[in-house]
Amino acid sequence: MDYITIDGKSVPIEGEKNILSLIRKAGIDLPTFCYHSELSVYGACRMCMVEDERGRILASCSEQPRPGMVIRTNTRKIQKYRKLIVELLLASHCRDCTTCTKNGSCELQKIAFKVGIHAVRFLNNRKQVPIDISSPSIVRDPNKCILCGDCVRTCAEIQGVGALDFAHRGSNMQVQPAFDKPLNETDCVGCGQCRVACPTGAISIRTNVTDVWDAIMDPNVRVVAQIAPAVRVAIGDQFGFPKGTNTMGKIVAAMRLMGFDKIYDTNFGADLTIIEESKELAERLQKNENLPLFTSCCPGWVKYCETKYPEFAGNISTCRSPQGMFSAVIKDYFAKADEEEGKKTFVVSVMPCTAKKGEILRPDNFTDGRQDTDRVITSVELIRMIRQAGIKFDEIDSEALDMPFGMASGAAAIFGVTGGVTEAVLRHLSADKGYKALSQIEYSGVRGNDDIKETSIMLGEREVKIAVVHGLANAGKLLESIKAGEAQYDFVEVMACKRGCIVGGGQPLPVGPRTKKARAKGIYSVDRESQIRFATDNPVIGHVFEEVINGKEHKLLHRNLH
Amino acid sequence: MLKNRQDLIDARNQAKAKMEQEKFRILICAGTGCLAGGSAKIYDKMCQLVKDAGLDVDVEFGAGAAHGPNGECPSHSASAGNVKKSGCHGFCEMGPLVRIEPSNLLYIKVKEEDCEEIFHTTILKGEPVERLLYERDGVKYKAQEEIPFYAKQTRLVLKNCGHIDSEHISEYLAVDGYSALEKVLFEMKPEDVVDEILESNLRGRGGGGFQTGYKWKQVARQAETTRYVVCNGDEGDPGAFMDRSIMEGDPHKMIEGMLIAAYATGAQEGYIYVRAEYPLAISRLKIAIEQAEEAGLLGDNILGTDFSFKLHINRGAGAFVCGEGSALTASIEGERGMPRTKPPRTVEQGLFGKPTVLNNVETYANVPMIITNGAEWFKGIGTEGSPGTKAFAVTGSINNTGLIEVPMGTTLREIVYEIGGGIKNGKEFKAVQIGGPSGGCLIGDHLDVALDFDSLKKMGAMIGSGGLVIMDEDTCMVEVARFFMNFTQNESCGKCIPCREGTKRMLEILEDIVAGRGTLEQLDILKELGEAITDTALCGLGKSAALPVLSTLRLFRDEYVEHVVDKKCRTGNCQALKTYVIDPEKCKGCSKCARNCPVGAISGVIKNPYTIDGTKCIKCGACESACPFGAITIQ
Amino acid sequence: MLDKSFYDKADEIIANYGTEPKWLIPIIQDVQTEYRYLPPELLTYIAGKLNITEAKAYSVATFYENFSFEQKGKYVIKVCDGTACHVRKSTTILDQLYKELKLEKGQHTTPDMLFTVETVSCLGACGLAPVLTVNDEVHAAMTPEKVTALIKELRGEN
């Protein structure tokens, strides 16, 4: 085995592409702004510099490890340089940390404290520019941008969208859409992955917390909440629970304390989706038209397909997303009571996703011209509300969801990870509902983190070809290969965010590899521990179809495509 | 179309024979400098005169020749003489230049009105026009080669510049052009070519001084077989125009060098990246490529061999940073010209991610003669570590502004005083800025150091692409440092933090200093920032961005201290540090100054001496130019 | 939306090169040569044809100094502020131009669309410093007086 010496310690080279990975493996947390293992190496922040035995300064993110190399990460010279670089960044940065949404989770703040900056010797004379609040999903504050390019590379390389890029050069450089247009007028899909990558408060979630508080405080408003599957495994670690812990009971208890009137599970909506979408697939297979059927759960994907590949828009399932179906059902369910009590039902969905904020504004998600979901708040916003309410999340006792929509299958829970929708649909379509069949589906290739996963099942005589893809750049590749005739599928599940909703644009940060893994594990254990593994086994579903939906499938569960 | 080796030899002999038949040759410099001085009109006039006299003159030579912006003289069958537009002679200070062969007379500062006399006296009677000859210290020089400016030079790369018409490939063939290509194609294996260049120790003329042969060797041994040869003609250093002159005056030499590089490294395609500010170079290169393609020297199966090579031209779009290798390749790819981190290096993953040979114009122009004369010959010129010659553009406060070529190891004194003719207006030499905004300063102490890659590095400067800006006693070094920092800051791509934010802060401090707002503490911050940028910036340009400041801080610290402590600029260059005073002896009390002062800082009583209120004065100098008695001076 | 002729011209220019992304810069250079500025609508149009995002095309176009989204004057005057010209007082040339053309600081084009004044880092004509170019034609050894005369001459042509 080859070794390199880092600060006097011998470290084995085990296929690492750069010295930085070795340094981190050696237990040294070298600060960086622009390095992300999933993105191309940019090498601009220079924070990861190290000194070699000849006194040369190298950027460890781009330097390949060579056996026998001797490097030091913490010489006096490097300490000084690192500090000066952060000072230079701070000098052109708004320093109103106390009022910044990123306060406490800001990388710049953290690193500035780490390298020990006590004063900035330069004047902040950066030209202030307006904040872009045009998007319903994210807010862009260019004044807080440190030009690391993480968002630009995420948007282009991972999502294949390219709504943001650098403009101008030198000290006039900015990150912005073409011609500095409002984000809303670009191809931005609202996935919020730029916000996940952003080390500062330059890109943040467009928050709706105030509106929700207003609704809660209004006695004439019935505030009904639905909580998405990926939320329950992402909130706990912010309150001291191990990463990936399912804290649904505490979330329910906290929300009741805040004053939500009814708290339901979006998984119920997912069960509706499983049934409706499977039905649609069966119909299309029978007619052999509009194949492949693309899933419609993910609004980032839907917008991506409509703007970049409009020729495939007709292949997207006409089903609303679980959020959309469920809100329509809730509104319908309370319509009579509202009338009797003189109240207004206000649906708040708690989502891991920023694009969902855009989805609810789409007219095709309205019922008879009525917006079904009134507000979407992300996990991050819910955490903020819990803190605002002073709730000791770790101390309160868990509580159960409200009925009748508080019950759902484990198949619905796994909607929060890539492959989950497919696995749930496969379970539904499978004639065999035994344990062995479940296990077979689990290992059919739908789980895991490969960019594009493929599997197939036999439905009667027909082999149904299935693909699962996550990350929009991967979706683009898949569409290109379908266009080129190189690939052919009957059913394709797409999630805009890599690994699925658990790493959605509205989830708390940071999300390192361990967090991602723990959240996925948390989701799968919700399914495993569930009494109900099949959507149709949800005892409430049948009742709701009969009593509530009752022939209004098209109106309530499908998109209004006229 | 030359189909084989013999065709090339025949074409060359034909071109030579034709040139030898000529009784005279009038070469009118058509470099950017002389064109601006009106040389196109001189060319037209000369053509007219020759034609009117009924002389059998050939102006067109070689088929498919492109036409100059002002058209060409009419063509005749056999030639008694030739009127040609040549490339830059380098003696730009004296332009427009006209050279007459075979007598090798060089006429300077020629005007259209002079053409008739030149024609009648020199062409028809064979006598020189004395008044148009170069004169120095009472001596009139008849032969161009004897003029001290030229006599002290060793013009190898620039040999043909000014002597041939670059718009006709036959002219290049007549001076043994493409014989090095012929040699490599028919007598050498690619690895022999790499070895020869490696053996010659040719070092890149673009700045870094990296071994050319080593680069080629690395490209040649990559597993990837699609490879590129790229020529960096993005000569952005203000005050440098060596590469422009080669591209304008002898483009085929550079193209031949690129062809040899392609053959040696197995590349199939090449790109020449030229600054957009060089329209003439671009048009001459286009003509040269077209003619080489027509002649079969570019394209598929060159001279009947297996070797094929295609060449493209890319125009720059206004970004100095594109002179940096990875920024240049990014620009060719249609991207922002932002340098990328290395590794992987350009030789491994350069243009379009393929192995790429990237050299500058002058480096390629050195290649054919190394192949023709051998590595040993080349090593006999220059110094041991830096063989060969170097072209320099000498500008600033010097008598002979222009383009020169000297062996490596020549001293600054020889360049400034012997070739350059000394400092303008008899002023005192103060410093020379070498290598442009990426370089450093040399001062009087350095006048006798032999200049080469290594000696300059030791002095904290670098050869850069070869711009030498001479500065005299009237130049404020702090203002020069500010000027360069302003340039670099403007041209910073903005990618890495030290360069983007650091140069901005350095510029702010320098602006404070020249405006009289500087502090001693700021001098320390300047040094701190400069050292950090040098060590931590991403690319070569960033790493050298602070050099002019660091080197002036080291060599002229007293001037900086004067600016910040005494609030004085000894040269009077820094406007804000000027103090205007009225000499009461000279002032007649006419009130003209007071009436011209835009801020009402001058007051007094008519017919009595006036005074300037220093607190109100904005140092615009309006009073100074208004005073009819010269009573207002700067202190 | 521009007149159709603009898009036809863009198609013609694209046809000269191809639709690979590497041709973006040459194509928009030719467009700029044609119209003396780069119409933003055409940049978007060309980006679509080359299958690159609009943000990317904008990113490239704003990186290079030569591209301008604003229409330029009939005469584009570029004043060289390279080292040699600077040492020989090119600043006074620029000042004189601004004075003659009554341009404010930060303003580059005269309201009558006759003149645009820019600075350029080096034209490589250092021997003739200070120099400026009018639509690429070099004017050597400029003085404030020569600037006045030049502007008068150019105005006279109209």
Distance between the termini of chain C: 31 Å
Q: Identify the overall geometry of chain C.
A: elongated
Shape of chain A: globular
Radius of gyration of chain C: 18 Å
Overall pLDDT level of chain A: 94
Features:
heterotrimer; B: 635 residues; alpha/beta; 5-stranded mixed beta sheet; 20 strands; 14% strand; C: alpha+beta; 4-stranded mixed beta sheet; 48% helix
Word description of this protein:
The complex is a heterotrimer of chains A (562), B (635) and C (158). Chain A has helices at 19-25, 76-91, 107-115, 150-158, 193-197, 209-217, 248-258, 266-287, 299-308, 322-341, 356-359, 379-388, 410-413, 420-429, 435-446, 472-483, 513-529, 539-549, 553-557; strands at residues 3-6, 9-12, 49-52, 57-59, 70-72, 138-140, 165-167, 174-176, 203-205, 221-227, 262-265, 293-294, 344-351, 366-367, 370-371, 375-378, 452-459, 462-470, 491-495. With 562 residues, chain A is α/β, with parallel strands linked by helices. Chain B has a five-stranded mixed sheet with strand order 2-3-1-4-5, with helices on one face. Chain B has a five-stranded mixed sheet with strand order 13-12-16-14-15, sandwiched between helices. In chain B, helix 8 (190-200) packs antiparallel against helix 9, helix 11 (251-265) crosses helix 14 and helix 18 (477-491) packs antiparallel against helix 22 (547-555). The termini of chain B are far apart. Residues 59-78 of chain B have low confidence and may be disordered. Chain C has helices spanning 4-17, 24-35, 40-49, 54-63, 83-87, 90-101, 144-156, and strands spanning 75-80, 115-120, 132-134, 137-139. Chain C is elongated and about 50 Å long. Chains B and C meet through helix 2, strand 12, strand 16 and helix 18 of B and helix 2, helix 4 and helix 5 of C.
